[in-house]
Amino acid sequence: MKQLLTIFLLTFVPLVASAQEPMDGTDCSNLFFKALLDEDANAVSNLIANDFTVTNYNGQTIDGRALQQAIGQGYIIVDSGMLAGTRTRTYGDVAVVQGFWNVSARIQNNGFNGNVAYTSVCVRSGGKWKVTTVQLTPAQ
């Protein structure tokens, strides 16, 4: 019985532990938006590069630290979000991911509900995929 438990742990625990490790640029981008939906500042932290920036609807740029703080302090609340039309172009260790995000969110109590066109750039460095920048634009 003990040997069976050891085999189980050695087989399945690594799979669970690496489940949130991005497999490619598309997966990295998708996990980033999932972390926003889950309002998980730790997951965002693990997915973004040190020099990460996001450009919002108004053209304002926010760095990764500010984004993590806003999520952690409840300034950004994503009520729902669904990605669609995702298209990825990969150039070696760089992936450009574009698509639409149908989102309902509040940023400092200012609500937004609708489609957002997004572009995210993900880079593989040290064998790990990280999001380096995200551009969000309201779409009709």
UniProtKB/TrEMBL annotation:
Leader sequence segment: 1-19
Superkingdom to which the source organism belongs: Bacteria
UniProt key word Signal: yes
InterPro entries: DUF4440, NTF2-like_dom_sf
DUF4440 domain sequence ranges: 30-131
UniProt keyword Phosphoprotein, yes or no: no
Transmembrane region(s): none
Keywords tagged on the record: Signal
Protein name as it appears in the record: Uncharacterized protein DUF4440
Organism annotation: Dyadobacter jiangsuensis
